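Project standup — Tuesday

K.O.: blocked on the structure for the chain from last sprint. Re-posting the sequence here as requested.
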Amino acid sequence: MILNRRTLIVGAAATLAGCDRLAKNGTVREALFSAENFHRWAQRSLMARDALAHEFRPDQISPFFRPNGTANPNTPEYKALWRTGFADWRLQVGGLVERPLSLSLAQLHAFPHREQITRHDCVEGWSAIGKWRGVPLKRVLDAARLRDGARYIVLHCADDMGGGNGYYESIDRVDAFHPQTILAFALNDQPLRVANGAPLRLRVERQLGYKQAKYLMRIEAVASLDGIGGGKGGFWEDHAGYDWYAGI
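H.V.: unblocked you, prediction finished:
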């Protein structure tokens, strides 16, 4: 059975019936029953942390995978990387890690890969099914050796959003270590097109499309999201009030 927001909330309500003592605590109640925290709590309480998003058959792949958000960062820095086929591009991995990394595409290709055919659900209401190939984020974080204090993984992108604050997103350690969370470099057996996030994008399959950060440049492990962007965990969270946890 595939659980969605509605079934999660109904099931969580039944679970909460036995938690009266906890729910009477005002502080706990305020944190738990905010829409975002409740949704995250419900999904993770009713599903195993490593439960997989539904995967599809090859014949179900959409004929065209529509780009979402920015279709080209179009900055001088990005265009210079694109002109060389991203030969000079490097993914920087730092923050609360014991072994900072600077990885080329060739080095990422040398990691064990994962392939998955999943559905991308956009907050705007459309969806598309695509076959992704990439490196599980867990393998990269294991290579960098996360420190104990690292609670969140922040993904910084080449997209400067028209000269404003750069696009970024973040996930916590639970989603970062999920088996379907990958750093994808191929879509439908072809290298990522610019419109779909070349050279590398995040796929965190149990969340909505705006969490799937494109044009990745840097990964940062942090203890807190305070002081990063507007402090709410992502570009659209800061600027449009989107939920930080966008589970589906």
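K.O.: great, moving the ticket to review. The CA atoms of residues 32 and 71 lie 37 Å apart. Confidence is low (pLDDT under 50) at residues 1-26, 28-34.
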